[in-house]
# Entry
Amino acid sequence: MKFSDEELKEVRELCPGAEACEEGGVPYILLPELNLPDGCKPAQVDAVLCPTAHHGYTSRLFLAQRVTSPQSRNWSTEARILERVWYAISWKFEQPNLRLAQILALQLRAFR
Amino acid sequence: MIVRGRIPQQLYLAVRADLARRHEFAAERVGFLSARFGNSAGEERLVLFSDYHSVPDDQYIDDPRSGARIDGTAIREAMQRVLDTGDGLFHVHHHAHRGKPGFSWMDRNETPRIISSLQVAGPDQAHGMVLLSDDFCIAHIWLPQSDQPVVAQRLTVVGYPLQSFDTEV
Amino acid sequence: MAGERFSRQSFLGDSAQAIIGNSIIGLCGLGGGGSHIAQQLAHVGFQHYRIYDGDIAEDSNLNRLIGATVEDCLREKRKTAIAERTIKSLQPDADVKVYPCRWQDHPEPLRGCDLIFGCVDGFGERRELEASARRYLIPLIDIGMDVHCVENEPPRMAGQIILSMPGGPCMFCLGFLNEQVLAREGERYGDAGPRPQVVWPNGVLASTAVGIAVDLLTDWTRSLRSVVYLEYDGNRNTIKPHPRLQYIQVTACPHYRAAQVGDPVYRKVA
# Structure
């Protein structure tokens, strides 16, 4: 998946330190100190967004730690990406032709 | 501090092939290997070679006292490469004999000046010099912020077969 | 440890025993496959090991865990301790670094290895181990087996041995890993149940893997020159090159590129 610099800039408006990277042919967006929705503890956490298919999910948001959110979530996955361990909840949605920032926003909706 | 180097076999063979080409007046050729630092949080540091850059013929200086002397343009281009890629760079050349090679007096005095320039361009990377013989390979590595090299304990050519060159440190 | 000990394997070459003795071997997973490999490496004369497994020996492991005893299970001995004991019983002076955890929890020593054996569960963990091995330019020999049960048919036992060489075809290039198998594994999360495992296929796979490692290091056959992807058919007792190999024309792996070696480097978004 190729995304434009414009899309990456949109992500940076949500997370100023966003950086793009790749592993195993899969693109990732590293999101340092990503702000989580209100009510999450902690409120900020390092994260990595996989905007493409990942182990049965159309996209995936991995967090550096399991966080608590207003609704409890099923933390189903522990994955090693870019030499770091990450955690993800089971959260699926359709994402036809969404831009990166939209994918991130929909992923974050799970933590409201 | 233990430092080891690894180079893919295909890259290693490409370096050897390039350095074996005859030059109009230089007795030997030199080149630059790009390298990334690895395992920076571990006890054993790794230098992982990823690319090779040949020095163009017209960037050699005709100097009978030296086997191969390169000009300022070659060094500026190397520094620019460090800036552009964020990679470390290793000066590499070949001594035509079998067995473990040793850096010459000239190598030990001249090449570190090039390393200093590379360190200015990329202070957070490992830079250094690699020396090949016909059947062996050694490396001196300047770790980030260091003005003295460490000797690579092992250089491994990663391929079929797996070939390791150990240096007693 | 010279003298008679290795006289029967002198055909490997004059410098073979020194090469074997100096090589640092990583072993991820010390269950049915890894325990066999640890034992065989010690017989061959390997002296430097970094072994990983977070599990303890249980009664259900005794049908295949090489070196384990009933008492080990009663005492809840760690699989790493059992493997270390097996290695040391053959190579008392061996340097065995023991990590009673998953390799992911303490990966730094693994990066210092010259060669890694992957005896891990599942496709996802294989992807992770190969990604790390590629990043640090380490050849990886993966083994694994499974038994598939289909109604009204005999169980089908199959396995694989893959030598993943940095720069060459990876498990994705070989078609062993793909998004479909990773997705299926993801869907089965938490519902896998105990997977069938027996001693003899693990022995076949482990022996073949050790043979590949010795050849890779010593070059005694002078014929190992490209990717290894072998399929094991446990019903027919055969090992042969995977048929997919003849259709693979990968010269440079597009998944793990040369520019991605070393500690991860991120590209700042402009």
